[in-house]
Design a protein that fits this description.
Blueprint lengths: L2 H25 L3 H13 L2 H26 L8 H17 L4 H13 L3 H29 L1 H7 L8 H24 L3 H22 L3 H20 L13 H14 L9 H11 L5 H33 L4
Helix pairs in contact: 2-13, 3-4, 3-10, 3-13, 4-5, 4-13, 5-6, 6-7, 6-9, 6-10, 6-11, 10-11, 11-12, 12-13
Length: 322
Amino acid sequence: MKANTKKTLKTVLPLLLGAFLIWLSLSKFTQEELNEIKISFYNANYWWVGLSIFLGFLSHVCRAHRWKYMLKPLGYQPKFYNNAMAVFVAYLVNLGIPRAGEFSRAATINQYEDVPFDKAFGTIVAERLADMVVYLLLIILAFFAQYELIKELIIDRIPPNPILIGTIGLVLLGIAYVIFNAIKKSTKPFFIKIREFVTGLIEGIKTLFTMEKKWAYIFYTFLIWFLYVLMLYVVIYAFPETSHLGLDAILICFIMGTFSFATTNGGIGAYPYVIQQALLIYAIPETIGASFGWIAWTSQTILVLVLGGLSFLLLPILNKSR
């Protein structure tokens, strides 16, 4: 399959899935229920939605600030506004091409601050590792808080043959090991470039362990995820029907909603649908759940569109001397 075709499929298929989930979410509603959704949108308290947007903005700024702790050990101290706009651009790119934001972020900081792409990308990979640790801690917290619910949503859906899964995993590891040795020993220019890229990547990841201000980095990592949860939590007060929900319920919605971002571009269609289904467990009507999911998703998506769009415009202007 040609590279352009693969790239197109990676972009189009998630969009199609998102469109299908939007249809799936709305097709079950009668005209009367759709009118109820419109009314709930109209009557929502948008002060809380605005607070959610502000918290989302703070989380992005904290991510940009945290990045400097990893770039400094490599000998680079980019301007903060370039760090921030590179992050904003990454989120915007992810809306169009899933998981391409990390590459665009590294490319942006390389273009405007001369940070080598491989090293910048290595720091971003290290970031994702740190984020994954916190995310797993949130899952564990939710697991102990509501074991039966987690069991129903996740554990019962795991394929019942762990031996087969383990065997497939070992085979894949074996193949990866053979490929790794082939690349390591090859003298062909293409494989030499791969080795150089991997070396830079590893150097970037190592900064996670060599940075001077580890505790500051850890603090900002937890702060980012606290803001992520909080920006969803405050939306419950936008609707009278959800204002009684506790943090435990929102934590479940947050975990399930985060999974949805891996399936479609920026969670389009998937995020509102998953939130709607999760809220059903807490006896929240589907119409309110749909409104809640769509408002939570739309508000943060608008934030990304605005910040990312402005960043595309301002980056060459603020760096016009380059």
